[in-house]
Amino acid sequence: MKEILGTTGLIFNEPLLWEKGKKGRSGFSLPRRDVEKHPVDKQLEGPGPDFPDLSEVEVVRHFIRLSQWNFSVDSGMYPLGSCTMKYNPKTNERQAARSGFAQAHPLLPQHLSQGTLKLMYDLEQYLTEITGMDATSLQPAAGAHGELTGMLLFYAYHKSQGAPRSKIIVPDTAHGTNPASAALCGYRSVPVKSNERGVLSPQAVGDIMDTDTAGIMVTNPNTLGLFEENIKAVSEIVHAKGGLVYGDGANMNAIMGIVNMGELGIDVLHLNLHKTFSSPHGGGGPGAGPVCVRKHLEPFLPVPRVIKQKERYALSEDFPETIGKIHAFYGNVGVMIRSYSYILSMGPADLKKASQLAVLNAAYIKDQLKGTFHLPYDRPCMHECVFSDKLQEPYKVTTLDIVKRLMDYGFHPPTIYFPLVVPGAIMIEPTETESKEDIDLFIESMQAIAKEAKENPELLHAAPRKTKRRRLDETAAARKPCLTG
Amino acid sequence: MKELNELNFPENVRYAESHEWARLEGDKLKVGISDYAQDQLGDIVFVELPEVGDTFGKGEEFGTVESVKAVSELYMPVAGEVVAINDTLEDAPEKVNNSPYSDGWMLEIKADDASKIGDLMDNNAYLDSLKG
Amino acid sequence: MRYLPHTADDIATMLKAVQIDSLEGLFAHIPQDCRRRETLKIPEALTEWELNDHMDALAATMAVSPEYKVFMGAGSYAHYVPAAASFLAGRSEFVTAYTPYQPEVSQGTLQAIYEYQTLTARLLGLEVANASQYDGASALAEAMLMAIRVSRKKTIAVSSAVHPMYRRVLATYFEPTGFNIRELPYLPDGTTDLGPLKDMDDLGGVAIQSPNFFGCMENLEAAKQSLPDKKTLLVICFSEPLAYGLYKSPGQCGADIACGEGQSLGIPRTFGGPGLGMFAAKMKYVRNMPGRLVGQTVDEEGKRGHVLTLATREQHIRREKATSNICTNHSLCALAAVMYMASLGGSGFKELARLNYDKAEYLKEALRKAGFKLPFSRLTFNEFVVEFPDDFKKTYQGLLQKKIIAGLPLVDFYPELKNHYLLCATETTARADMDALVKEIIP
Hints:
- The complex is a heterotrimer of chains A (485), B (132) and C (443).
- Chain A is of the alpha/beta class and 485 residues long.
- Chain A has helices spanning 56-67, 90-97, 99-102, 114-131, 143-160, 177-184, 202-208, 231-240, 333-369, 399-408, 436-455, 458-461, 474-479; strands at residues 135-137, 167-171, 188-192, 213-219, 244-248, 268-270, 291-293, 305-309, 312-316, 385-387, 415-416, 426-428.
- In chain A, helix 2 packs antiparallel against helix 9 (333-369) and helix 9 crosses helix 11.
- The two termini of chain A are 45 Å apart.
- By secondary structure, chain B is of the alpha+beta class.
- In chain B, the strands form two sheets. Chain B has a six-stranded antiparallel beta sheet.
- Chain B has helices at residues 35-41, 94-98, 123-131; strands at residues 14-15, 20-25, 28-33, 44-48, 55-56, 61-67, 71-75, 80-85, 107-111.
- By secondary structure, chain C is of the alpha/beta class.
- In chain C, strand 5 (203-209), helix 8 and strand 6 (233-238) form a beta-alpha-beta unit.
- In chain C, helix 3 (83-89) packs antiparallel against helix 10 (331-369), helix 5 (107-124) packs parallel to helix 10 and helix 6 packs across helix 7 (164-174).
- The longest helix of chain C is centred in the last third of the chain and has 39 residues, at 331-369.
- Chains in contact: A-B, A-C, B-C.
- The interface between A and C is large, with 197 and 203 residues.
């Protein structure tokens, strides 16, 4: 095996902000005062916040040192299933930083905001085309926000039909945001089990679908990395009883230019721009969760919507059946700019190729690790594959131990213990931006760890050893929460 | 996690299928969760209990118990009214792990019908149910 | 394509290993009736250089400083961001990192967010702050849902002087829930009419914004006294947190929950998003709080470190019983905010707040002296309402031609406020520009 990636480096220690600094220091150039001081009402005046005073040098060193403790896509591979940790193109950052975009006030007169309005309009068109749906709203600020929007659309639709419903069918492989979003709309989740092939069966859905069920939430490809082969039949069953189909599009990276989501019977779909469309994760956001709908749900989309009149773009509130607003303005425009740049940089052929290569990379990993780790569903996978720790059980080694050891090898762990249907799940999604060499190094590392599990499990139990911190006491953090310094 | 033969199933309590136990103390019942349950949950970080005066039917959810990565519902083993809760668990939830049948007790209830405790399993029946 | 490293050789080798004959073959198991038949109808790929030109042209159409003088706030504010702060927020170790679920390799993000939580709690005068929400509007919606959970009541009251967009988002969130929203009118002095509160029962929470949408500081002590019963929570929201560098914090005024928009703290406006939903509350409510929380702990070697904690409130564990459905939040924006707050320091924050106040007071006085009416007598921070004469619309349009945007017309949000405009002046507004504005509008 080549030299492994993971090493220790010169990584600095750094205290908390308020453990540094001295009163009177400044990291800010106070703007020139060209107006006099005016008196302030003493009753309302406060002491100001208790922040430390730091010099610019202290602030820069502080955060540079902290940044060195982070794993990031720019340093290495993050094979996190369902997160699509693909490379974040730097030209996208340059575009979003242009002052015409970055400084613009959202309530500018519309004739003075044409550039951004055109960008939003065009992006809606592109996403509508890529998904095969009929219309798009860019307003939701994240995938879960898109799911909430979808549930609000369901609610509005059923209300307009004069028959509000109380339940939603949620597969056992669903992401936790699915039932949580449904609950926010007052829907009770009814679970449905996937079959022995790891997909939804029309029979199982048919058994529970009734006229009090608003619809079903499906993820396709699902969280086992499998294409929901019965999705058309499932959609027909749900539609036949007047229900709607919600598609969680988190796994869109597997099927761009290959599958037409609109034709699968999906009525509303959300996308994650910070997954499929390359906008960076930022350590937990911001992202964006646009929703794409079929025609019959278009009237309910959030407002304002961008419309085009001749060659002019405008924001219109003239949609009387709208669910209203879920964001103060129009959504995360900064994220939209990055995804728009990405789509224009890739073009139709390379977007499709990206999906093909994402699937190739996952299929290759599945094939190479098949004997080493237990593969619960030995079927063609899409952009991700799911293993478990079953083969390592005899050595008293768990999924957690395996992935903690992977950090010592220089990789971020894959997604673990999800989906819940596979005990000890290890969900691996390489994405298309990882080269064959990096994938081979990942495979070799996993194989080496499997060997260690057998011959020297203590290495795994004590892992990670090379990182800034060893395993942390999460029990103490939850028992005696210390959330503010 | 421990093997079944390493866990305790005292004789003087009765066990529900959902792993709660009940023990007669005078005219009240003490309620908690079994050694098997706490072992399965791992380090307990929080116990959410009802208020004194709340009433629950048999099998109704009366609270939750949390570990770092999971939440489990707690179900009333015998119908009745809550007359006391173990509020020391707020600062020391680990009592449930360390002494699930004594210091880790959760509720004291006034049962609608205290004889219903007989409907619950004895320690042997409970152990059998765990083996099967 | 530079983001796709696979060569033809790589692809051939890998296909051979998986025993599939072509890339198309990887999808053979997908039913034909699910397949897309045509190629994607989107523009052909641009080179990096064509993309630059295209985006340059789009960006050039936008009315921004310094070419335009934009006297607008209303939830989106112009503030200087130090070069050091934007440089740090652009570090790719922060930008391209994932959510810190694996704490051993994410201590950078975790410590920085812990620092953000701490400074936010101090700024808002409360005991615990979460790691962020999407924006001020969704933060308010979540705050009111939390008030309902904590109080177990079914009604909330919201001031009509709360940002109109926040109120609309709140209404959208509440639509399917069966909970009731009662609106409190505003008084001639620009503050909320608290009178109706005494007749409201079953009230879980009351939301007041301060400074409110009119820029006015609310009478928060009075609001606290007006709460009809002990179980009702006081939610104080904001769109300009810089105000708390000058005025008392929401916590000092009795807030149970404080929430709002943090865009002012080092985040560019970018046409309204991404912003930063700030959210803080009293510690006793922590298990009912939405959003992620970072906590301090130690590792196996006893060294101090940080982790995501109290995750059992969240969707990935609690699923349908979660305190919120939020997963991805606005972590990088929170990071930008803590970098900004660290750069300013306590002293700088206070001085900058005072400067904002003085700039707006200068403009107010100039407008008063020029004979214009300022309808609300209440103290403001960096924005305020002016009532212009009936024919001002023409003047406003004329000013647009001169690249001056003289405030935000309020009539679309408050039909009774015809000819009322919301003007904003921050540290970025030069005295000369304020003088020029006044000169241009004097009849």
